[in-house]
Amino acid sequence: MAPHLTPAAPRAVDAERVLDAAASIVAQTGLRGLTLRDLAKALGKSTTVIVNLFGSRAGLVSALASAGLEQDRAFHERFFEDLGELEPSRDALLAVLGRYLRRRALPSAAFVRIWEELVVGGDPDMAPTLRAWEAMRLAAWERFLARDPKLRPMAEVATTYLVIEQFYAGALADRADYEAIAAEGLGGLIDRAFGLEDAPATTTEAYVARMTIPEAPSDEGPNGAIRLKLLDIAADQILAGGLPAVTNRSVCQAAGVSTSTIAYHWSDMRRFQIDAIWRCVFRDMPQQLDYRRPTPTTSPTLDSWSALMAATARASAKPGEGFYVRYARLIAHICLEARRDPELQALAMILRGPEGGGTYVGRAEVWPPQFTLSRRAATRFALWIKGQALIASALGEAPTPAQMVEGARRLVAQRPR
Q1: Does pTM surpass 0.70?
Q2: Domain with CATH 1.10.10.60 in the chain
Q3: pLDDT, position 342
Q4: Coil, strand, or helix at residue 409?
Q5: pLDDT grade for 32, boundaries at 50, 70 and 90
Q6: Integer Cα distance of 312 and 338 in angstroms
Q7: DSSP 3-state assignment of 371?
Q8: Cα–Cα dist 314/321, whole Å
Q9: Which residue did the predictor score with more confidence, 165 or 318?
Q10: Which InterPro entries match (predicted)?
Q11: What is the mean pLDDT of residues 211-230?
């Protein structure tokens, strides 16, 4: 016998169908591509139907976020149930972490794309939902890692580390070089949790030795000032709305120049966008973190280092926004776009391959002397602090120096006293 439908049931079915269609659009084009008009067209309905269900686009996005959270909660429950009674040994945990990233990179995991879009979106109204989302992820990993009591403290740093690695995995999961480098980084994270010494980062070092580090754009040469002005405008637009926000018209109008100006200075729009991305990376980088510039010859104290790191991860009104907040948001935007445009995968890989390399090169001047910064430790701390910065920004929170110290102690070996 068919189940009895209450008067409210057809409306619920309509809402579910609308949310499924909206999630599909977000996965393909991002939140900025979600319009009531296009959604209605995809459904074969009028926008009135959507407005009657959700009130407005903001109401639709809020409902989409709530549905995505519940779908992700179900994902985590199924994921860890499928592991049965598996003990989190070193090799088993490496397999579990890799499997987790691959599953969340699948096109079918549209709820993950919703989470990613909300994290980089910067909408304060979404903070309560994202806070619940983060609590759910942490609790799920804590329950699994509690099977080995000494691993439970790893849950907090691991879930933060996975924030940025998940963006990379979504863009690069089909690349063998990424899979090898990601596995090396995850292996280092696990070894640290088990109290093991770091092995050499052979795969990462080999990749870095082969790559060409891009030059930072400058104002040198003819018309250098106008070129840098255009790049600064584009960099701000990328940080605010992702790569699709940068158009010839949007940049030239903001600069007050002719729309032919970019074409005069760059061979094509993509080349201009990529130069703007590197402007984002190198602009305003603290001197202590910039391997290209001389740094002090004395090591920082733990207090001065932790204050610097907390400032780089702090979200505040521009221009006070922390470097790692901007950098993490940039990486996330590029990785989201690389899912839709394979030409950007090479750029995403250039960002992922040498993660942590800058601070590793200058480790004697950047890190307090009580820490021993191996290459693997530099990678995992770099991914962790970017994840910390991105989530804190999305939640409207400010990481503290004490949190930086705690993260460092969990991720980086300390010299014997």
Answers
A1: yes
A2: 8-55
A3: 87
A4: helix
A5: confident
A6: 26
A7: strand
A8: 6
A9: 165
A10: Homeodomain-like_sf, HTH-type_TetR-like_transc_reg, HTH_TetR
A11: 80
